[in-house]
Amino acid sequence: MQSHIEIDAVEDEPTGLARFYATARRFMRNRSFAIGAVLFGSVVLVTFLGPLLTDVSPNALSMRNRFQPPSFDNLLGTDNLGRDMFARVIYGAQLSLMIGTSVVILNAIFGVMLGALAGFYARLDNILMRIADALMAFPAVLLAIGIAAALGPSSMTAIIALSVVYVPRTARVVRSSVLVVKELDFVMAARASGATDFRIIMKHVLPNSMAPMIVQLSFVFAYSVLSEAVLSFMGLGAPPTVPSWGILISEGRAYMREAAWLTVVPGVAIAITALGLNLLGDGLRDVLDPRMKVEEG
Amino acid sequence: MIGYTVSRLLQAIPILFLVSLFAFGMIYLIPGDAATVIGGPEASAADLEEIRQNMGLNEPFYLQITSFYTNLFQGDLGKSLMLGTPVLDAIIDRTPITLGISIYSLSITIIFGLVTGIIAALNHNKLLDQIATLFALIGISLPNFWLALILIVLFSVHLGWFPTGGYVAFSESPIGWLKTTTMPAVALALLQAGLLTRITRSTMLEVLSQDYIRTARAKGLSEWVVVGQHALANVMMPVVTVLGLILSVLLSGSIVIEVIYNIPGLGSLMGNAILSRDFPLVQGGLISIAASLLFLNIVVDVLYFWLDPRIRIKSRD
Amino acid sequence: MKQPNARLILRSSIAAGLIFAAGSASAEGQFECPVVGGELIVAVESGIPTLDQQTTSAGATRNVAMNIFEALITRDADMNPVPDLATSFDVSDDGLRYTFHLREGVTFHNGKPMTSADVAASFDRYREIGGNRSNLDAVEKWEMPDDNTFVLVLKHPQATFIENLSTYTVPIVIMPSEEAAKGVGEIDIIGTGPFKYVEFVPDSHVLLERFDDYVPTAVMETNSGFGGYKQACVDSVRFRMITETGARMAALETGEVHIATAVPAISKKRLAALDGVELASRLQGLSMGYPNFSNAPTDNLKVRQAMAAAINAEEIADAASDGEFQLQGAFQYPSQAYYSEAGLDMYNQNNPEKARALLKEAGYNNEPVILLATQQFQWSYNAALVMSEQLKAAGFNVELSVLDWPTALATSRDADGAWNFFFTVWTSTVQQGGPIALRGFADPNNVFTPPNNKGPAEMNEIFDRVENSATLEERVAAFGEGQKYALENVLGIPFGVLKSTEGLRSEVKGFKSFTNVQVSNIWIEQ
Lengths: 297, 317, 526
Description:
The structure holds three protein chains of three kinds.
Chain A: H1 2-10, H2 16-29, H3 31-53, H4 85-120, H5 122-137, H6 140-151, H7 155-182, H8 185-192, H9 197-233, H10 245-252, H11 261-288
Helix pairs in contact in A: 3-4, 3-11, 4-5, 4-7, 4-9, 4-10, 5-7, 6-7, 7-9, 8-9, 9-10, 9-11, 10-11
Chain B: H1 2-29, H2 34-39, H3 45-55, H4 61-73, H5 87-122, H6 127-140, H7 144-158, H8 174-208, H9 211-218, H10 223-241, H11 243-260, H12 266-275, H13 279-307, H14 310-314
Helix pairs in contact in B: 1-13, 5-6, 5-8, 5-11, 5-13, 6-8, 7-8, 7-11, 8-10, 8-11, 11-12, 11-13, 12-13
Chain C: H1 3-8, H2 13-21, E1 39-44, H3 59-65, E2 73-75, E3 81-83, E4 86-91, E5 97-102, H4 116-129, E6 139-146, E7 149-154, H5 161-165, H6 177-180, E8 195-201, E9 205-210, E10 223-224, E11 227-228, E12 236-241, H7 245-253, E13 259-260, H8 268-272, E14 277-291, H9 301-310, H10 313-321, E15 325-326, H11 352-362, E16 368-374, H12 378-393, E17 397-403, H13 405-412, E18 421-426, H14 428-431, H15 435-438, H16 457-468, H17 472-488, E19 493-505, E20 508-509, E21 523-524
Parallel strand pairs in C: 1-12, 1-13, 16-17, 16-18
Antiparallel strand pairs in C: 2-3, 4-5, 5-7, 6-7, 8-9, 9-12, 10-11, 13-19, 14-18, 14-19, 15-19, 20-21
Helix pairs in contact in C: 9-11, 10-12, 16-17
């Protein structure tokens, strides 16, 4: 790990655009990254463009149209209350991705902040890492279910529960790379020249700890989408008024044999998203640093 | 060695305290109580009050937390409201079942993860690498309860290979055990094989680039010998280190898998305890599961420390 | 036996006849198992919390425990009280002394003969920790003149006493006196029923075995509901808790289980077409909901009446049951003694214009109406979704609050909680008939959480007459008044009766669909 970061740190900065193209080429040559980017990219695209493709409300009931298999009128069929599954899957994507994105943002903010603090200040390290250890001692899903039960089911609950589960893991990743970076010569030099801690963290430490963090966040995204489904299965996820994919599968699973489309479509949607993100993360890691370890679970 | 072990154990004490605090606090915040669950929608307010009195749910906060810690220090995790048995007994009863399935699942995971990981590494960036990785990743990208239900339809209803659920103890009938645990073990293995594939692949890549492997290859040793004798030994090491992590993932997965496959293990115990607001069971379960995982991690670290002296230097950070 | 008093409690003359036939056991025509042997496997849809039958109202417990335990008086298939461990009873002229003659030769599963001392100890336990101990409020004391006689002495006459005593919500089951001395959930499971307890593995299964020394009651020719002439035809019964619907149906399909409860409506057609699978349907319970009297805007009568006017109950019941329902607005089934059609013009109005007019009259200012439901049960969540659409169409500002079941239930118990309308299903409440069906609309059990838990005085006065009028005619009339008051003042809004379906393998014979699974008199053809 160390060698790689050193190279990155002392690299001369070429012009912005040229560097961007060079990096992009490097990424796209990696097949995992490319496939992952295409898969996840298309999910994001469908999520945002999807609502333009249908003018049906995802919650419009039509009791006479229950359990219609896929047809021209209802591309993905209808559910037990006659709601259009195409609209529900599209709008469900928004909620699932919103939850994933929010967890990632919270991880980026708190995971990085806490990880950087713990890595940089030895005194805080002990306290923060013991708290992280305690939180990580619980199996992830069990902790998420407990927190979700405590806060009552809502999208916000799912976001908070999943953040509490994954922030310590992200913080650990950031911390270990900060520990390496802070001992590097140029950081020592900056410190010797009297730069403030804040400036050193922002200017030198964080930018050089980016790589493992980005990789970690891509996995956190994938886990969040999956864990949200599990919370929904337990009846502790987002309220089903605007459905998430997890809720769609959870609601449809009693009809699995007679109306398979109710579970297959959202199931495949989750799988594609998580697969895309996992591939993306693997690709990122391969390109950025093939030997990097990431905290999972 | 002994010093390291002792210091790791001492470090675990504050963590365990925090774990217990989280467990208590989380449970205290959960709305609804066991009485509402037991009473059901048709119980009158008076009925509920009676049930609460029976269960001692009416005590104020300070009494609850003091008695919680008093009992905890005496090693008493309390009594389950629903089962009527001591929490510790319930957990001890259930552990072998989940552990058995976990070990079965772990074996599948290790075989699957090592094979795909090594194939991927040996064919680094070739098509086979991509296929192996993709195959492994699909497992961790599926919602587990969905996968579990699909396996039932496929292997029980259509093919008739396994029963749809239930559990037969190994001591009762080894074949029955295999029949009832194979589907859950596979479903759980698929959830984490990808994790191990990744680790194996990256470790293997690292090992393969080492000088002694190059030397071995240069000496004209067959690829089989190089991989089998030299590389594989080095790959097992990181597998041991993620054991705790994998068990944690297994326990997470078992909550859903055990409910679907009707298996009376730790997972269904904890899942149902939360849903039925059996607070002593949830608290006790959380604390003992977390403590066991912590302890397991310490054992792994100590073993690792003992096996690989290089860690001593690393462990200082 | 003082006939007039005994007759008071019974509607069906057939059931009454059975009581009077008691004591003169006739060996003729009584049920005999055509095939004996085998293990019956029943897949139940919910986890069994405990087998301590005196302490829980969970239907999942009754499914199993009511095959192990018996009560003095229980309910038959039509929900009429029938003697079970008592073969008959007399009531004194002043209505204060109920003398129960116990079934003779009965032993517990541990081999100990049952005497009135065990009955008394079981009543002692129930009065202390029983789930419905208020049912014994009218009882002053009990006496044991001899081993086979048990006497309950009342503080004041209570016309509906036998109805209360025979309640099956939390039945007063009889256990050996040693067990009756133990606390909640601490007893060994020992009863007098046709099956004895072998093992209970929570989250997995309960195993029962035939009790060879069972002495059936002679009051009927075969079993009916919880009572009657019970015989264990199978060697053992395994109740498996398979909560996941898909897995339970798969187990029925592959023949791993003989009986599976709660077959989803959509699966019926497919399962019925399969060789070797048969279905049995029954009425399950009344899907309904009630408003919160303590929160605006449902504290306003006109707003509540607007809600009732806006509702298309048929559509809601349809959604709540996937189409397996029966329209019914009454709080009793037509077959029951207390059935009344009073006030039913308020049911299933489907009249958004009237609702708008009422809202205007109420001065409704777009305050949010919070519908509280849980997604764990389809009858709750689906009903809330459809009702929300209907209310919106009538000009209401609706919010849906969908919580997990324990949270939703706890919220609905709280007058200050964030809710205006809560969805439920009344199963035993409606089935048991009489005062129990209206209990939730009167003090102190008001489900609609009025301020300070003081419901409308008029309703309380009516309820008192439902419970305490001397004759059945008077009580039935009062029940009609109560139903009318509840519907017109919108203490609750009924949607319809949901049906429930059990699936069974065709080699299983003698199964009778009942509110709880009864495994007596069922045999497996080879």
